[in-house]
Amino acid sequence: MRFTKMHGIGNDYIYINCFEEEVKEPAKLAPRMSDRHFGIGSDGIILILPSTVADCKMRIFNADGSEAQMCGNGVRCVAKYIYDHNITRNNPLTVETVAGIKSIELFTDNGRVSGAKVNMGKPRLLRSEIPMLGKEIKETSVIDELLTISNGISWRITCVSMGNPHGIIFVDNLDLVNISKHGIEIEHHPVFPERINVHFVQVHNPKEVTMRTWERGSGITLACGTGASAVCVAGVLNKKTERKILAHLPGGDLKLEWAEDGNVYMTGPAAEVFTGEWH
Ligand SMILES: N[C@H](CCC[C@H](N)C(=O)O)C(=O)O
């Protein structure tokens, strides 16, 4: 089976063109392909499929085989793939995802896509939409709430769904956070019935942040597009940042805007690295 290796600022996935290939059990295939020693190595796999309502359909499976609703860095690469490989020449184009149809504006360089601006849709803020358990009298959002881990450590967390769940924690100094230790504890906290992606954020000024991510189902990644979108929303909700920010992630930068129309727009690069044959 042929595959294409792509990344969005270092958040790397294996892309399979299911206009030409058939993948029977992606949840089992993802961990095998994603293994960085016994497989190809990636943060997961992404299937590119025909769609009756958009230019294509995307399904994303994390490195542990769990399927996610959406992938920001991934959808920029899907857009690049279907444009560069002539599945469509629309610009903007649309990608059907579990989190809804996304509209994507392409930036090209000598006729090939170098980056994209994605309408990530509207954030969901209600506790039940994250989803997050917890007693509450009425449906409320989760802003700057105390989350206590079983070992007694507690964090102030803001939760935002971009179709997939995100927990955002603002810290004064990212260098002091042990993300491997705390990320997994928060990901698997019983209050999150579908687990959660975890982002630690240092705010430099109202227009600029640095973030580090522990992803649900993949662990530490170099970037998270849905996560950066959620960070943009959380910054506004906590009155720490403006609606338009620059986010520095370990793998590179993303521009985010929670626009007045209620949608979050994410702008960033997309790269194709190599193609191969999986036996
Ligand atoms: N681990 C995520 C899916 C990948 C999202 C991320 N890689 C992005 O760029 O948005 C989840 O389980 O919700």
Automatic annotation (TrEMBL):
The keyword Cytoplasm applies. Its EC number is 5.1.1.7. It comes from the Bacteria. It is an enzyme of class 5 (isomerase). One of its GO terms (molecular function) is diaminopimelate epimerase activity. Catalyzes the stereoinversion of LL-2,6-diaminopimelate (L,L-DAP) to meso-diaminopimelate (meso-DAP), a precursor of L-lysine and an essential component of the bacterial peptidoglycan. This is Diaminopimelate epimerase. The lineage of its organism: Bacteria, Pseudomonadati, Planctomycetota, Candidatus Brocadiia, Candidatus Brocadiales. The gene is dapF.
